[in-house]
């Protein structure tokens, strides 16, 4: 199993393109973590559908 870090230059909201890519990577047996920023929340992480999302607050 490979560990894959996807870094987004945006907040991670509903984006079927990113979600499809994550789904395919998981089906291939990879562990996926998505790193993105957030304007509204402090740093936090969450598990969703077999992958981890890590959000870091940035100032606007």
> Which stretches are low in confidence, meaning pLDDT under 50 for 5 or more residues running?
none
Quantity of strands, as a count:
4
- The SS-based structural class is alpha/beta
Number of helical elements: 1
Ends distance: 37 Å
Largest sheet, if any? Answer: 4 strands, mixed
Shape: elongated
Please characterize this protein's 3D structure.
With 60 residues, the chain is α/β, with parallel strands linked by helices. The protein has one domain (3-57). The protein has 1 helix and 4 strands; from the N terminus they run E-H-E-E-E. It has a 4-stranded mixed sheet, covered by helices on one side. The protein starts with a strand and ends with a strand. The mean pLDDT is 90.
Q: Which characteristics define this entry?
A:
single chain, 1 helix, alpha/beta, 4-stranded mixed sheet, 60 residues
What is shown here, in short?
By secondary structure, the protein is α/β, with parallel strands linked by helices.
List the helices and strands and how they pair.
Layout: E1 3-7, H1 16-27, E2 31-38, E3 44-48, E4 51-57
Parallel strand pairs: 1-2, 2-4
Antiparallel strand pairs: 3-4
């Amino acid at each position: 199993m490979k560990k894959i870090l996807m870094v987004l230059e945006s907040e991670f909201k509903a984006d079927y393109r990113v979600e499809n890519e994550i789904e395919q990577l998981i089906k291939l047996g990879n562990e996926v973590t998505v790193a993105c920023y957030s304007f509204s929340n402090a740093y936090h992480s969450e598990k969703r559908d077999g992958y981890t999302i890590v959000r870091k607050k940035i100032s606007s």
